[in-house]
């Protein structure tokens, strides 16, 4: 198993996270760096948030993108109209590319879902040329995603299974301060730096927030889908109450922070 992220429907993922990863991709590109003529690898491309942003932000010679999910690969290929972009199904821990094939290897919101994270970072380093860059970013689930913690803390107050979900969610790999940086250093990257990136998630109303989770998308959706009828009704009502916070349903906005790390191949 090379990914712990569950996906059923590409459109559901877009509503859950894709629209926000598109915003984060722009800040991540600024942090990771980019130059005309380069060959870039996008590891864990999803539906293409970073892939297509890369194509728009520099005159690159080639963009290779891989993802473990066939659903994501099919959707990204459906969207692709750029001959420089090549998307395929592959394992982040066994990248199907030659050594030193790229100028940069980037991973947007991926490494915390890869059980063998160090192996994935080592593979990213392997396929990047000496002097090239490896960079990654992951959400700070513990302290940087209040919109999602709102749901997590609500279900934790309802049941033991909710408390177990919170423990898993808040302490996924690579999400603690310095954890990405330590892994990059241990895998032989040099001049390693870590920073925080922030965007805002803006929702039209509760349904805009809750629909993809209720449909079973992502780790939170997987939890909701496993509830019995009574548990589901109780959870729906409690999370709605948390979202509305005593005011009429409508727009809500949450700041969200991601850790980002960049290193150079020696």
TrEMBL record:
SUPFAM superfamilies reported for this sequence: S-adenosyl-L-methionine-dependent methyltransferases
Organism field: Phyllobacterium pellucidum
Protein name: Methyltransferase domain-containing protein
Pfam families from the UniProt entry: Methyltransf_11
InterPro entries xref list: Methyltransf_11, SAM-dependent_MTases_sf
Keyword check for DNA-binding: no
UniProt keyword annotations, A-Z: Methyltransferase, Transferase
GO BP, one annotated term: methylation
Source domain of life: Bacteria
Signal peptide: none
Residue ranges constituting the Methyltransferase type domain according to the UniProt record: 41-135
Gene Ontology MF terms in the entry: S-adenosylmethionine-dependent methyltransferase activity
């Amino acid at each position: 198993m090379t990914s712990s992220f569950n996906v059923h429907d590409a459109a559901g993922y877009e509503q859950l996270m894709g629209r926000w990863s598109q915003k984060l991709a722009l800040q991540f590109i600024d942090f990771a760096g980019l130059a005309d003529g380069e060959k870039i690898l996008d590891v864990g491309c999803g539906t293409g948030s970073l892939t297509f942003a890369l194509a728009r932000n520099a005159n690159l010679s080639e963009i290779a993108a891989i993802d473990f999910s066939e659903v994501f690969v099919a959707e990204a290929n459906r969207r692709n109209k750029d001959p420089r972009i090549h998307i395929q199904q592959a394992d982040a821990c066994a990248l199907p590319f030659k050594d030193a094939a790229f100028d940069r290897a980037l991973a947007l919101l991926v490494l915390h879902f890869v059980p063998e994270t160090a192996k994935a970072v080592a593979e990213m380093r392997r396929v990047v040329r000496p002097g090239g860059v490896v960079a990654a970013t992951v959400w700070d689930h513990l302290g940087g995603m209040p919109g999602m913690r709102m749901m997590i803390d609500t279900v934790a107050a309802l049941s033991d299974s909710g408390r177990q979900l919170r423990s898993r969610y808040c302490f996924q790999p690579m999400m603690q301060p310095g954890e990405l940086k330590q892994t990059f250093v241990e895998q032989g990257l040099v001049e390693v730096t870590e920073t925080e990136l922030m965007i805002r998630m803006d929702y039209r109303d509760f349904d805009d927030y809750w629909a993809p989770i209720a449909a079973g998308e992502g780790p939170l959706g997987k939890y909701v889908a496993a509830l019995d009828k009574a548990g589901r009704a109780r959870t729906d009502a409690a999370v709605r109450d948390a979202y509305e916070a005593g005011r009429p349903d409508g727009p809500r906005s949450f700041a969200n922070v991601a850790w980002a790390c960049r290193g150079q191949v020696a």
